[in-house]
């Protein structure tokens, strides 16, 4: 039986000891391999809309998609803290945020994540006060990409100050950790130095945060059609898969196209 509070305490104690490692998973084999390898956190991210469903961004992901993938990840990861991402438009009021956070917990998540800082303070507080641990997410917010585009955040002093205020808001509201996505690297380091909870970077520079999060497909080379520029893939499994399926096809002597 997983002890969520103990796992969160362990993550918070790792601050400054060694980098915290978080990775996404969307199905049973991914979750089981990650669980057996030993990670601090698994994120069932709404990035599944892109790497599992082939959409250009995360904005078509629904609560039903998230519940389905959380259920199958939970089946494969009995030892690792699982964070379920609240999809776009599922936390527009504190009441809606809490009710949907409860749905993700019922599906098997141990904690939830949502995007935004100052504007989401009351939604985060409602979730945390109900006893659900929450990871916050500031900097580049993929769910806002249609308005804002994919670009590094915090380049202007005004934007940097607003991201620092986002950090302060999520800390006040009770988040247990904080993803900082694609901010100027020195800003991520500055926020980490000021922040009382662990920071987890993605595209915000190496060594600037207490840990890092990566998308599974990016790191193993499972989605070759788009790899973010800041990712260094550790494998190219797409090549092995293509080789294996072609080899089987050729054994059948199916005429090549
Ligand atoms: O959905 C996701 O995978 C995420 C990470 C990029 C942090 O939010």
What does this structure look like?
By secondary structure, the chain is of the alpha/beta class. It has a single domain, classed as Phosphoenolpyruvate-binding domains (TIM Barrel), CATH 3.20.20.60. The chain contains eleven helices and eight strands. It has an eight-stranded parallel beta barrel, surrounded by seven helices. Helix 2 crosses helix 4 and helix 4 runs parallel beside helix 5. The structure holds 3-methyl-2-oxobutanoic acid (KIV). The site of 3-methyl-2-oxobutanoic acid has 11 residues, from strand 6.
Oligomer status: single chain
Mean pLDDT: 96
Broad CATH class: Alpha Beta
Distance between the termini: 51 Å
Percent of residues in helices: 40-55%
- The helix count comes to 11
Strand order of the largest sheet: 1-2-3-4-5-6-7-8
For the largest beta-sheet, the strand count, sense and barrel status come to:
8 strands, parallel, barrel
> What is the H/E string?
HEHEHHEHEHEHHEHEEHH
Q: What is the radius of gyration computed over CA atoms, rounded to a whole number of angstroms? A: 19 Å
Estimated structural class: alpha/beta
| Uncertain regions spanning at least 5 consecutive residues | none
The CATH topology name reads: TIM Barrel
What small molecules does the structure contain?
3-methyl-2-oxobutanoic acid
Count of discrete structural domains:
1
By CATH, the architecture is named Alpha-Beta Barrel
């Amino acid at each position: 039986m997983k002890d969520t509070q103990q796992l969160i305490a362990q993550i918070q104690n790792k601050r400054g000891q060694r980098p915290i490692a978080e990775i996404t998973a969307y199905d049973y084999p991914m979750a089981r391999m990650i669980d057996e390898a030993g990670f601090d956190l698994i994120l069932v991210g709404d990035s599944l809309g892109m790497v599992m469903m082939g959409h250009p961004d995360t904005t078509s992901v629904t609560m039903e998609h998230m519940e389905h993938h959380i259920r199958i990840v939970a089946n494969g990861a009995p030892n690792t803290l699982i964070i379920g991402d609240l999809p776009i438009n599922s936390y527009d009021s504190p009441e809606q945020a809490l009710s949907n956070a409860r749905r993700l917990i019922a599906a098997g998540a141990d904690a939830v994540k949502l995007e935004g800082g100052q504007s989401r303070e009351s939604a985060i507080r409602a979730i945390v006060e109900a006893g659900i641990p929450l990871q916050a997410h500031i900097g580049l917010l993929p769910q806002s990409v249609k308005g804002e585009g994919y670009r590094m955040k915090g380049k202007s002093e005004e934007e940097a100050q607003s991201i620092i205020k986002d950090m302060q808001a999520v800390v006040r509201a009770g988040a247990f950790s904080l993803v900082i996505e694609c901010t100027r690297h020195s800003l991520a380091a500055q926020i980490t130095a000021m922040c009382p909870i662990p920071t987890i970077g993605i595209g915000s520079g190496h060594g600037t945060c207490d840990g890092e999060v990566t998308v599974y497909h990016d790191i193993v080379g499972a989605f070759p059609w788009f790899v973010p520029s800041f990712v260094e893939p550790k494998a190219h499994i797409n090549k092995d898969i293509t080789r294996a399926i072609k080899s089987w096809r050729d054994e059948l002597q199916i005429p090549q196209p």
